[in-house]
Amino acid sequence: MSAQAVAPTSPAVRFDSVAFRYGGEGPEVLRDVAFTLPSGSFHFLTGPSGAGKSSLLKLIYLGARATSGSVEVFGRDTARIGAAERAHLRRRMGVVFHDFRLVDHLSAFDNVALPLRVAGQKPRAYQEDVSELLAWVGLAARADSLPPALSAGEKQRLAIARAVVARPWLILADEPTGAVDHDMALRILKLFVELNRLGATVLIATHDRELVGRSGIPELRLEHGRLTRNAA
Predict the structure, then answer these.
(1) What is the secondary structure of 38-82 as a DSSP string?
(2) What are the tens digits of pLDDT across the range 44-69?
(3) Sign of torsion, CA 193 94 86 16?
(4) At what angle do helices 152-164 and 182-197 cross, to 10 degrees?
(5) Beta bridge partners of residue 42, listed in sequence order
(6) Range from 15-19, 112-116, 179-183 carrying the lowest mean pLDDT
(7) Who's near 83: CB < 8 A, 6+ residues apart?
(8) Burial label, 121 (beta-carbon count in 10 A; 0-12, 13-18, 19+)
(9) What pLDDT digit, counting tens, does each position of 176-213 carry?
(10) Coil, helix or strand at residue 171
């Protein structure tokens, strides 16, 4: 894969007394959450359904703002930056969404290539990287297929390839192994581990206790919106 820009040495993510409720009303989804992800670290984010995992990820990738407290991404307070800097930070993140968010009229190859095209790269510059990633996630033979023709597991793997192809500083994944079998889950984890070894900060939200237990990777655990285990 192509070379990765060097990430800042400041913590990748820092939450300080963060609370969050949707629309500013109703019950708090997150309560007094505080933790730090050092740049270049790898953590799992665990907890039962409804614990607030997806909401926490949303605050990091700038899909929402905290109701109170502060969220910093690579040293920048996300509540105090303008639109241009928010766009810059988003380009440094790779996000694997739980609902995939693929572009149905683009082939599997072009879905993976999309972040590179948006960044201004020419096809000859990214052909090898995209093909390599499709092979890694077992989709080399499906490069020309459209997302509606793919199974849920294939869509999951395609979304992962798209999220990491630009070698982001920060990788956020919401249940990235939820629609694949055990062997493919281990293969996907190996890809994330390799990207982390090359410098990316990785945070994976998962229900897969076996994967967490076997990996030895530190764990942040949410229960009822509160952080009950902080491995940072």
Answers:
(1) -TT-EEEEE--TTSSHHHHHHHHTTSS--SEEEEEETTEETTS--
(2) 999 998 899 999 999 999 999 999 99
(3) negative
(4) 0
(5) 202
(6) 179-183
(7) none
(8) middle
(9) 988 888 888 888 899 899 999 999 999 999 988 888 98
(10) strand
